[in-house]
Amino acid sequence: MKRRRSHLTRNLWILVWLAVALIQAWDHFRDKPAPPPPEPDGSYVVLENARLVDDSGNDGDSFKIAHDGGEHVMRLYFVDCPEKRQYSLVQNRLKDQSGYFGGLSIPQTVSVGLEAKAFTEKLLKEQQFTVKTRWEPVFDSQRSYALVIFDDREDLAEKLVKAGLCRIHTKGTRMPDGQAEFDFEHHLRELEREAKAAKRGAWGKPKRAPPKSKL
């Protein structure tokens, strides 16, 4: 009788261990939900109901805003618009910018800078926008890097790239929704290819003829 009871107990434990093994195997191979997206970066400060302040220093990627009784000069992440005028301190930068767009003349490059300034000012004056910043300072200046988001959820950098009025050339950042810097820059590169194919902005201006080689 004792041997029979021991045999039943052993069989019962075998069944328990088999059930546990089956449950573990099912849990390993079953379809599991995708991992949640990364948490938004909470270090951004959100400035709502800001407005553009007319200032002689404003250009396509850098501008003064008023918010909550104070004024701040913001500089866009990811993009660099051409200079809006020519002077000795920006001569090399203008050369780099003209080369980026395939060999524009310096006056053409400056004209793109003026177009970018007008483009940005029009958007900031006519549309609601939100500034997101970490107050990260721009080197050797009173400006802070920022993102500017419109009600259509598009960033000002995206709009400038789509219009062909900037180069993708400055400091990037991880986006507020957790998107990696590299991924957002890749997205901008795709927008830039579309703008270039459509000959928008700087991409549509006639390029200088290459110098003739001397025989």
Descriptive keywords:
8 strands, alpha+beta, 5 helices, 215 residues, 18% strand, OB fold (Dihydrolipoamide Acetyltransferase, E2P)
Characterization of this structure:
The structure is a single chain. The chain has 215 residues and is of the alpha+beta class. The chain has one domain (45-203): Beta Barrel (OB fold (Dihydrolipoamide Acetyltransferase, E2P)). It is built from 5 helices and 8 strands. The protein has helices at 2-29, 91-100, 106-126, 156-162, 181-197, and strands spanning 45-47, 51-53, 62-67, 70-76, 79-80, 129-137, 144-150, 167-168. The strands form 2 sheets. Strands 1-6-7-4-3-2 form a 6-stranded mixed β-sheet, with helices on one face. Strands 5-8 form a two-stranded antiparallel sheet. Strand 6 and strand 7 (144-150) form a beta hairpin. Helix 4 (156-162) runs parallel beside helix 5. The radius of gyration is 28 Å and the shape is globular.
